[in-house]
């Protein structure tokens, strides 16, 4: 480095570029720069060298990952890319196809901060919209979320009105993103008495996203598992009465075709997540959850992010799914085939 004096030094520098790249030692670079050149021209030449070094370093960095593979950071990155975007430790083959979530804890989250419940619901909506692209990127096919149950109407009117507006705002605001990310949206539950403008947005978003296929986002609004079963019974009764089917033809497969979840190819959640430490299913998908793995997280829904989701998925992947005592693969295949053929 001491020999650096103008033009000759430049040549010397060119020789040493590869060594500099390995060292990546910018500090040293600056040090010799000030030690050795005092004339204006040398300062300019020196600056040129620094720029060249940086440019070449950048090119090297981009064109060859192996060049940097010694550092643990890029080693992690490589592991990630071999899993096609999945975090280390998760396996693609063992991912759930359908994840259902009871998004609990918005109000407590707000209360803990001395905020009105509405702020908690806002934060909850943001939390959901962060999870949607994650599910889509990692290859989960269906995400069903419990947004509003038939029991939630007893909440203060102002909060109910706010929630209805929030659903509407979310649907209108996110439609473009759903299209860009190939997300299909469906709404399950009894929406016939929801505010008209919300119903219009539900129709618009579900129709517009109908052909999207990467992720199916199912929003349960005014949903009740029992009501769903009851309306399925009514529908089947009408069909029997009209002579369309015989009573003895009614089996599980016929029945599941009358439930709201008939909208998806994978109606049975592999994994149910409930946040905020509550250990109940609260009338959510009660028919469909028969063989689901349950995962309960202590965090409140607005705090549930990628890290917590990875924990839930890891827990799911460590479990041996038994489907009522039978071997996981055989029975699992049977169950998913049943649901696919419906
Ligand atoms: C919510 O769903 C229940 C059960 O289907 C229905 O009786 C009720 O009218 C619905 N309420 C509104 C406001 O949509
Ligand atoms: C969905 O696909 C069908 C059949 O290809 C087509 O007729 C329809 O216009 C598409 N709908 C939307 C909203 O893209």
Automatic annotation (TrEMBL):
EC number: 2.5.1.-
GO MF terms, alphabetically ordered: ditrans,polycis-polyprenyl diphosphate synthase [(2E,6E)-farnesyl diphosphate specific] activity
Gene3D superfamilies for the chain: Decaprenyl diphosphate synthase-like
Residue stretches spanning the membrane: 32-57
Family of this protein: Belongs to the UPP synthase family.
Biased composition (Basic and acidic residues): 324-336
Lineage: Eukaryota, Viridiplantae, Streptophyta, Embryophyta, Tracheophyta
Name the record gives this protein: Alkyl transferase
PANTHER family per UniProt: DEHYDRODOLICHYL DIPHOSPHATE SYNTHASE 2, DEHYDRODOLICHYL DIPHOSPHATE SYNTHASE FAMILY MEMBER
Highest taxon of source: Eukaryota
One GO term describing the cellular component: chloroplast stroma
Keywords: Membrane, Transferase, Transmembrane, Transmembrane helix
SUPFAM superfamilies for this protein: Undecaprenyl diphosphate synthase
Protein species of origin: Papaver nudicaule
């Amino acid at each position: 480095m001491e020999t650096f004096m103008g033009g000759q030094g430049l040549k010397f520098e060119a020789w040493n570029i590869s060594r500099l790249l390995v060292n990546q030692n910018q500090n040293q670079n600056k040090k010799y720069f000030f030690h050795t050149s005092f004339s204006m021209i040398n300062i300019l030449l020196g600056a040129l060298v620094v720029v060249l070094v940086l440019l070449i370093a950048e090119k090297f960095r981009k064109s060859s990952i192996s060049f940097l593979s010694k550092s643990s950071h890029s080693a992690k990155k490589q592991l990630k890319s071999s899993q096609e975007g999945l975090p280390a430790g998760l396996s693609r083959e063992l991912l759930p196809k359908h994840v259902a979530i009871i998004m609990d804890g918005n109000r407590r989250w707000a209360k803990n901060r001395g905020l009105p419940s509405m702020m908690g619901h806002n934060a909850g909506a943001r939390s959901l919209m962060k999870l949607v692209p994650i599910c889509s990127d990692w290859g989960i096919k269906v995400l069903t979320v419990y947004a509003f149950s038939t029991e939630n109407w007893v909440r203060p009117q102002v909060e109910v009105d706010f929630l209805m507006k929030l659903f509407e705002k979310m649907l209108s605001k996110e439609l473009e993103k759903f299209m860009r990310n190939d997300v299909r949206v469906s709404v399950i539950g009894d929406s016939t008495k929801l505010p008209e403008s919300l119903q219009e947005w539900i129709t618009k978003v579900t129709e517009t996203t109908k052909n999207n296929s990467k992720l199916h986002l199912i929003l349960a609004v005014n949903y009740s598992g029992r009501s769903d079963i009851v309306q399925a019974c009514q529908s089947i009764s009408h069909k029997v009465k009209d002579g369309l089917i015989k009573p003895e033809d009614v089996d599980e497969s016929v029945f599941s075709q009358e439930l709201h979840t008939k909208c998806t190819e994978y109606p049975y959640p592999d994994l149910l997540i409930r946040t905020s430490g509550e250990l109940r299913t609260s009338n959510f998908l009660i028919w469909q959850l028969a063989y689901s793995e349950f995962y309960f997280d202590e965090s409140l829904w607005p705090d549930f992010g990628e890290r917590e989701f990875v924990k839930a998925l890891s827990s799911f992947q460590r479990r041996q799914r038994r489907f009522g005592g039978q071997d996981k693969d055989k029975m699992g295949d049977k169950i998913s085939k049943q649901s696919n053929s419906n």
